[in-house]
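Students often ask why inverse folding is considered easier than folding. One informal answer: many sequences map to the same fold, so there is more than one right answer. In these notes we will look at a single instance of the problem. The structure comes first.
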């Protein structure tokens, strides 16, 4: 677990902005408040990216988006795979970037769609994807746009909290 946090910390330190990718089917269970605290402690802005919007009712996704925004976290609700709301994601990144060009750490638990998000941002398939957890083996830096550099990371966030509580919230 300590090695996982060292890896996450290094990626966050080396980035300008953190994109925390969550699964819209259970945002609370795929969220890492520890990651958010780490990023804020390092002076990094965090955007909550609620991915897989195509798998839940629209109203539910919007209520999660509003909930995160009430916590002071800019949030965008979208589906990278189906290209729903993805322009908003790009706009959120640009709006929250401390400077241009911006280096964005794409982080989150396994199978939330981090590599799919990167492939959307790049406009073509550059990050391999798989339904199997642990597919991404190491950090990969991708120039997505002239103004945007993204870092694909393995799903290495240490688990936190009680999974039963997360299930009860949904």
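Output (designed amino acids):
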């Amino acid at each position: 677990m300590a090695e996982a946090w060292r890896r996450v910390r290094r990626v966050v330190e080396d980035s300008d902005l953190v994109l925390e990718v969550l699964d819209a089917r259970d945002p609370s269970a795929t969220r890492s408040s520890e990651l958010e605290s780490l990023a804020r402690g390092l002076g990094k802005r965090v955007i909550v990216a609620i991915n897989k919007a195509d798998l839940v009712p629209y109203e539910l996704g919007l209520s999660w988006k509003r909930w995160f925004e009430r916590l002071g976290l800019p949030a965008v609700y979208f589906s990278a795979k189906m290209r729903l709301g993805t322009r908003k994601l790009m706009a959120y990144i640009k709006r929250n970037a401390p400077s241009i060009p911006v280096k964005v750490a794409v982080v989150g638990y396994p199978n939330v769609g981090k590599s799919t998000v990167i492939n959307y941002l790049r406009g073509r398939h550059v990050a391999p994807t798989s339904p199997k957890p642990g597919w991404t083996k190491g950090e990969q830096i991708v120039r997505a746009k002239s103004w945007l550099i993204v870092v694909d990371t393995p799903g290495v966030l240490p688990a936190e909290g009680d999974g039963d509580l997360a299930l009860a919230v949904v």
